[in-house]
Amino acid sequence: MIKTWTYLKPDIRKVKTIQNALKCHEIIAKILVNRGIHQSANALSYINTSPLNMRDPFSLKDMMKAAERTAVAIKSREKILIFGDYDADGVTSITILHDFLVRCGSDVTFYIPHRMNEGYGLKAAHIRQFQSNLAPSLIITVDCGMASHDAALEVKKSEIDLIITDHHASGETIPEAFAIINPKQSECQSGLSHLAGVGVVFYFLMALRKHLRDINFFIDRPEPNLKQMCDLVAIGTMADMVPLIDENRIIVHTGLEVLRSRGRKGLQAIVSLSGINGDELTAEDIAFKIAPRLNSAGRIGHANIALNLLLETDDKQAMAIARQIEEMNAKRKELEDNIFDQVESYIDRHPNETYRSIVLSSNYWHLGVLGIVCSRLANKYYKPVILVSLDTAKGTGSGRSIPGLNLFKILSMCKNDLLQFGGHQMATGLTISPDKIQSFKYHFDQIIEENHAKEKLIPKLCIDAELDFSDITETLIDQIETLQPFGEENPEPVFSSRNILIQNTSDIGKHHKRFTLFQKNGKSDKKLNAICFNYSYPNSKNDKFDQIAYSIKWNRWKGQKTAQLVIADFKKISCNLLKE
CA-to-CA distance for 124 and 151, rounded, in angstroms? Predict the structure, then answer.
């Protein structure tokens, strides 16, 4: 797909201000200004990813109320039930809250609904079930609850208190609960709307520990170590693809340190089986290897398997559960690829139907993997995607968007076609009557056409700076690493260079290629290694890129490190084989 290259042009005065404050390479200062960091203090806090820089947890609406009620439940040994979502964000949320409450001596249990049989969120039927079986006096939701109006009304009839912790956008009304901790609710002025569900729970634990400390609860028992929980907070945050800014950067940076210390048995097993270098584990490893595996349990089987893995303290048992998850992940990939191929085939046969968006349905699609397929299609075709799995009574679907298109708002404008929907700007879930699919498909596409410029449907590649190969030094790469972790709204820096000759090439699998590059007419004869994913041009020793866009990183292998370019895009490849 053709991308529009946009060269960012930061204000030179602001660049100098940041460079002087950090004593850093000019390129680093340009990158920070490009990301909206214009003041010295902001640059310093960006670089200093200390937990001490996190905002006050009591700035969240209802936080004190929730902390006080939970403290009473802990001290009185009331039965507490944690109800959570079945994805990696939900599972990590349940784990850290359960771990904290157990360490405080609480009578606590948890419940995760089955994705296929029960669907998303707390329902009235769950409350009636809990009353007869578990008899909790306090229910705490994690990563869900904002759409649970019927459940909240059922709770109100009982002697149960409901605390909702969530990060999903609310509708026109919010549930009637004892307390709601959600930075996205209209009356919350915390400025923490970027948090994932697990981030909201982590903030709740910060407040709860502070309150318990104030009432001398820990005078005869050790306090739970919140830093050691940051491994799971980082995983849930990366898995949910929330903006990697402010507190989320701090959480993920701290979590990576904890992950590298190899503390949690279940994660050690996952890291081992997925081939990750535990000493140099990165945010990319979380996003592309750890999180998908934890998600696969809820997609293919039951999320309790992933939760049991995270709670496991025995090495052998942890490895056994991890192998079970590995099998589920393989099955997930098979199902995902099958649906992806079906959709691609349909698009090839009906190109005019998917002009601005992709909305398709089938009676044969596995609901558990639709979200991943939506993400892959949105990335490939750069369009918002909705896929729906149908049965005789209703369709249940997932949606993914692209930058600049708020999927939740678009669905809000199509609500007359839907039975239910929820989520946020980049990812949503929905239910729909089968007879409404065509109407929804038409309205969804029309809203995009009427409210969004065509330019938003063209992928953009933002270039931070143009470099000569001689500019790529060890110092520059080291300083780029200090800007990690990268993610949503904090993208990895991208650079460009001109007149690039290819000296050597080698294949990596079927679709990827490794190069040795040097720059014609450059300031030096430096040669650099590069890799390009999904490369489809023929081999030739005389190949030449007029321009390449790339990121720069250290490639570490067996204790050695070498500079490597990861090619994101290129322009006008010249090749003898193409001319013949």
Answer: 4
Q: Could you identify the residue written with the tokens 């090495």?
A: 315
Domain CATH for 248 = 3.90.1640.30
Query: Which domain covers residue 161, as residue numbers?
Result: 57-261
pLDDT digits (tens, 9 = 90+) for 188-212: 999 999 999 999 999 999 999 999 9
The Cα–Cα gap between 454 and 466 comes to 28
Residue reference for tokens 């369009």: 383
Q: What is the pLDDT of residues 519-568, one digit of tens each?
A: 877 676 789 999 998 776 655 455 788 999 999 999 887 778 899 999 99
Contacts of 18 (CB under 8 A, 6+ apart): 24, 29, 32, 33, 37, 38, 40, 43
> Could you give phi then psi for residue 498, rounded to 5 degrees?
-110, 160
Evaluate whether residue 339 is within a structural domain.
Answer: no
> What's the pTM?
0.90
376: helix, coil or strand? helix
At 187, phi and psi to the nearest 5? -90, 0
- On whether the CB atoms of residues 209 and 224 are closer than 8 A, the answer is yes
Q: How many residues does the chain have?
A: 580
| Least confident segment among 105-119, 267-281, 331-345, 553-567 | 553-567
Beta bridge mates, 517: 502, 528
Number of domains forming the structure of the chain: 3
**Distance in angstroms (rounded) separating the CA atoms of residues 241 and 282:** 15
| C-alpha Rg value of the chain to the nearest Å | 25
Q: Which two tokens stand for residue 78?
A: 């009331």
184 phi and psi angles, rounded to 5 deg = -90, -5
